Amino acid sequence: MAVLTYRDRKIDLQPYFEGFPYMGFMCADSLNQLYYFHRGEKVTLYRTPLVPDPTLAAGEKVSDLDFNLFSASGFQFDPEDGYAYFTGDERNDEAFNVYRLDLATGDREKLTDEEYIYAKHFFREDREIAFIARRKRPSRMESFLRVLHLDTGDIRTLAQDDPEWTFSWTSIVKRPGTGEYIFALNQRNDRNRSNIMMFDPATGNRTILLPEGVKRSMFAIHSRLLDDNTLVFLSDESGYLNVYTINLDTKVVQAVTRWTEAPVGSFEIFPVDGRNRVFVTRETPVKSELYVFDPFSGECLHSEEIQAKFGIVSLDYTRLFAHEMSVNDPLTFWELVPGFDCGRFVLKKIPFIQYPSELLSRIIHGQAEAIRYPTFDRDEATGETRQIHAFLFVPDKLPVEAQERRAVITAFYGGDNRFNKEYEILLQAGFIVMSPAVRGSWGFGADFYSLNDRDLGGNEIIDLIYGARFLCRRFGLAEHQIGLSGGSHGGYCAMRGLTYPDGVNGQHEHFDFGFAIASFGISNIIDYYHTCNIPDWVLQKAGNPDTESEMLMDRSPVNHADKATGKLLLIHGENDNRVPVDQSRQMAAAMDRAGKSYTYVEIPGQGHGWKGLKENEIYFRTVFDFLAGV
Fold this sequence. Notes:
By secondary structure, the protein is an alpha+beta fold. It folds into 4 domains: 21-111; 112-260, TolB, C-terminal domain (Neuraminidase); 264-355; 373-378 and 397-627, Rossmann fold (3-Layer(aba) Sandwich). 16% of the residues lie in helices and 41% in strands. The protein has 11 helices and 38 strands. Strands 31-32-34-33-35-36-37-38 form an 8-stranded mixed beta sheet, sandwiched between helices. Strands 3-4-5-6 form a 4-stranded antiparallel beta sheet, with no helix packed on it. Helix 7 runs antiparallel to helix 8 (535-541). The longest helix has 17 residues, at 459-475.
C-alpha cells in the first residue's frame, strides 16, 4: 500500500492493512477448521485446521470470491452437506438475503429473494433456515417470519407482524418438541419497548413473554436455549444491561446478574461437565470483568479482571473462545477451557491467535490515556457536573510549538478501550486524537444511553464542544486547530458540529471548528427517514418526521451549511443503503450554494464503510490531501 505524506511526516499504510491481513475468525469445531478472511488484492475466505494449532499463513483458500464486493456475515457451517449458510448482499447495498457457500468448490448460491432480512438461523436437525424478512411500504415496514426448507427449496410464510408488534433485528430460537419459534420484537416500532414473542406455527398462537410497558432499549436474546424450557436474554430494564432467564411455560423471569454500574458486554451459554453455564463479561470503558454463573442456582463460579475489551464466542458449543483487544493490542484470541478440579471450578486461558509483537512498534504511535472532562449540565443521579469519559491519544512526536498542533475529535460511539487503526494513522501524522463517549453512548446505563433520544444533534454536540474546549486548555490550541471526524451517526455529528446554530435547546454554545470529516453521514433527517433502511432509529433518536418536521429540518446540517466554520470533507460509498449516498450529495450541494469550502469523494462499489486495500487507500489518501489544507 501507499506511503502518504502529511507536512513533513510519512505515513506507511502497509503495516496496518497488510502486516496482519487476517480478520473475521470463525471456529467451526464440527469441521475442525478455523475459517477467516485474508485481505489482499481481494478479500478472500481461507481455512486452516483448528488442531493442533491454527497456522494462518499456511491456510487454504476456500473460494475465489472477493468478499470486498459484497457483505457476508452470520456464517453457520454444516458438516453433513459441506455448506456454509450466511446472510449477505450482492453489492454492499444491504439488500440482505440468505446464501450458501459450497466449501468444496467455493461457489455461492442465493437462496432467498427478499428486500431485507433482519435475522436468520440454520436449524441443522430440521434442515431448515428460519428468517425474518422485511419489505418497505409507504405506511410502514412490513415484516414476516419465514422458513426455507433446504431439501425442497420451498419457502413458507409463518407469520406477519402488525402495527402493535413489529418484527426487527433478533436471534431466532426454536423450542425442541413444540416447534415454537422465539424471537425479539418491538412494540409499535419503538426500540425502547422491546419484548419477546413465542410463535406456534401449528396453531398460529402468539405469546408475548415479558410484561408490557417496561422500557427496554438495549435488548437481545441468546440463540441457544439453556434447557428446553428456559431462554436467556439481555435487557437494560433495571437501568443497566443484565442477564436474565425466563421460563417459557410460566413466564417467570430470574435475574442472573444484578449489576448497577458497569453493564454486560458479551454473554455465552456453554456446557461444563454436562450442564450449561452462563459466561458473562462486564465492561467498563477501561477494563472488562469475566464471570461464570450457574444460572440454575445463581452461584458465581468464577470471576477475574481483564485490562482490555474481552468478548466470548462459541460457534458450535463444543469449544469456547474469547477475543481480547485494547488501545495498544489489536488482537489476542484465547481458547477458554472450563472444568472442575476436586469440586472447584477452573478456567484455563490458552493463547490461540496473537498479533505479531514485531508489528506493534509499526502501528502504535502515541500514548493513550483514559480521561474524564466536564460538560455543561448536571448529572441528576449525583447532582454534580456531568463528566464525559474519553480516551485521549497523544502522538509520540507532538509538535513543540502549539500553533503547529492539530487535533481530531471522533464521534459517535467513542471511548472504548480498543485498538483503532485510524487513530494510530492520525497519531503517526502528529495529530492529537480524542475519542469521547458523549451522551447516548452505550456502556453507562440506560439513562445515559437515552439522553439523546429525540435530541439528535442537540446536547450530544455540546458534549463534543466541551471536549474541544478541554483540548484547547490542555494543549494550547486555538479553535480552528481542532476538527471533528465520524461515520454514519458520527458523520452527522461532524457535519452538525461544523454548522452548529446558536441557541439549540436554549443553550448558547459555539465553537469555531476548523474542519470536519464526515464519512457516510446523515445531512437531511426527514429525507433520510424516508430512504434509509433503519427508519425506527430515526424515530428513537431524532423524532417523528410526520409530526415534528420543523424541528427535524432545523436539526439537519443541510439547512445550516451557511454556518460552517471550517472546511468539510464528505466521503461516501456509492452503494450505501444504511445512509444513502444522496445524503452526502445533498450536503455537497448545500455547501456549494453557501459558498463554503468542501471536498466530496464517492468510493465505487462500497456500502456503509470500506473493506479492501484499494478502498482504504482511497480513503486515507483523500483524508490527508484534505488535512493538508486545514
